Amino acid sequence: MSSYAPGKELDPVLLVNTILEKTKAGKLKWEETPVENVFIASVGGSTTLKVRYDWQGPDTLSLLDENGKLLWIISDAGPVLTELFDLARRIALRVDEKVEALMETLQKL
After folding, report:
1. Could you report the per-residue pLDDT of 65-86, keeping only the tens digit for each?
2. 83 burial class (0-12, 13-18, 19+ CB within 10 angstroms)?
3. Strand order of the sheet with strand 47-52?
4. CA 60 centroid distance within chain
5. CA–CA separation, 64 and 47 (whole Å)
6. What phi, psi does 83 have (nearest 5°)?
7. For the chain, first and last CA: distance in Å?
8. pTM of the full structure
9. How far is 22 from 8, CA to CA, in rounded Å?
């Protein structure tokens, strides 16, 4: 059962922190999109998370339903949102693997 009730204030920082924890634990599979600074992850088949880095404004986390309808957009979660974006990017682009391969190649030079 959900602890959220109509009229109760939703806590964006708690949600972003929970998503960040699940990402760190390897529970969310982030994928790249055609847009360079946007990454997505599906949660339970009914919600899609879309994290976006904006060079000129606040980073955002959007929650979309199974039809792509915007449920909630979060831009006021502080630095944890930037941390989530960075981790989502690293996972989606397999940055760690690519850097490791680069280091191996550099060692052979």
Report:
1. 999 999 999 998 888 999 999 9
2. middle
3. 31-32, 38-43, 47-52, 60-65, 70-74
4. 9
5. 6
6. -60, -40
7. 58
8. 0.85
9. 24
